[in-house]
Design goal:
This protein is mainly α. Helices cover 72% and strands 1% of the residues. It is built from 16 helices and two strands. The chain has helices spanning 16-23, 25-38, 44-54, 61-71, 79-102, 113-117, 119-140, 143-165, 174-199, 204-231, 243-247, 252-260, 263-274, 280-292, 295-313, 321-334, and strands at residues 106-107, 110-111. The two termini are 27 Å apart. The relative contact order is 0.13. The model is unreliable at 1-13 and 234-238 (pLDDT under 50).
Length: 338
């Protein structure tokens, strides 16, 4: 990772994500249609649960990255559509499994599948999505892509297990946190970008640049998402404010707060997170401590670093509207924190 990153210029667009989504709207519609076709099943409940999950919203950020990275090289064909669908299926399968593990009742403002149909059905439907994903990869015929996306599936699972090992441990090291989100979140962002290099037969260095962009973007995205749980007064990118705290998730804001706190404050934080439930009063207490120690500013600084590294990774490519869109996206993600 380079320490000499180039700071991004001020955005000329108000919402680069929406611009990216608009630019590739027809491709995303093709991805959604392809997913719908692939998820058809003679088992009615599988079709019902799959459709509910796919249609419940979501940013389609990962398939957008696959499409954008392919368009970066002027790709002609439909492999990027099918592999973008693979990326989205992997993501949605992990959401199904995550919600069971986290005992979540709501996602994106709607009831989760496990809330509606139970844990067993949710786990098996997630497995079904992964199975369909592997079928698509085999049909694509590229061993490189098959290895890439199959390995990312196992990487995500390892990240989940590592997170469980450190569940509710407020003394978790920042290094461990980065390892967890690197596996759980960034690995799929990285793979989403690298696919574009694979189907365009780009060089190893070019594929590594795409991977670096995606990986660091994923770190920035997750840190920002974790900050918003303690900072924003509205739902941003589907984030329910205070949700992580009430679920007892130890994220970067809590880790940094614990490091900065006094001995008595650390003890209070430990006691909060070992309990099954936390209260509104305890959230207010935690927010006051974060203000006292300027935790949000420290976390944002971390996110800004990964945002800059991400954008800087595309420096080897010629200037183009696709490159600009991706770099501005990296800047926008961290600046969801106003």
């Amino acid at each position: 990772m380079s320490n000499n990153v180039v700071p991004l210029k001020k955005l000329e667009t108000s919402n680069p994500y929406e611009e990216l989504r608009s630019a590739y709207q027809s491709e995303i519609e093709e991805v959604d249609s392809f997913i719908k076709e692939k998820l058809s099943s003679h088992v009615e409940l599988i079709g019902e649960m799959s459709s509910y999950l796919i249609q419940s919203g979501g940013k389609r950020l990962r398939p957008l990255l696959t499409i954008a990275s392919s368009e970066l090289f002027g790709y002609q064909g439909d492999r990027h559509i099918k592999l973008a669908a693979c990326v989205e299926l992997i993501h949605n399968a992990t959401l199904l499994h995550d919600d069971v593990i986290d005992k979540s009742d709501f996602r994106r403002g709607k009831k989760t599948n496990n809330n509606l149909w139970g844990n067993k059905n949710s786990i098996l439907t997630g497995d079904y999505l992964l199975g369909r994903c592997f079928e698509i990869m085999v049909e694509d015929g590229s061993l490189e892509v098959l290895k890439l996306l199959s390995s990312v599936s196992s990487e995500i699972a390892q990240g989940e297990i590592l997170q469980l090992q450190h569940e509710k441990e407020v003394e978790t090291l920042e290094k461990t946190y980065l390892e967890i989100i690197g596996s759980k979140t960034s690995s799929l962002f990285a793979a989403s970008m690298r696919v574009g290099g694979c189907i365009n037969d780009k060089s190893k260095n070019e594929k590594e640049a795409l991977t670096s962009f995606g990986f660091n973007l994923g770190i920035c995205f997750q840190i920002t998402d974790d900050i918003l749980d303690y900072y924003s007064d509205k739902i941003a990118f589907g984030k329910v404010i205070g949700n992580d705290f009430y679920e007892g998730k130890v994220t970067l804001p809590i880790i940094m707060l614990y490091q900065k706190s006094s001995e008595s404050e650390r003890l209070a934080l430990k006691e909060m997170f070992v309990r099954k439930e936390r209260t509104k009063e305890e959230l207010a207490y935690t927010l006051n401590l974060m203000t006292k120690y300027q935790v949000i500013a420290s976390c944002k600084k971390r996110a800004e670093h990964f945002s800059s590294v991400s954008a800087d990774s595309l420096g080897i490519f010629p200037e183009s509207k696709e490159k600009t869109r991706l770099q501005e996206l990296a800047f926008y993600i961290v600046n969801r924190i106003n």
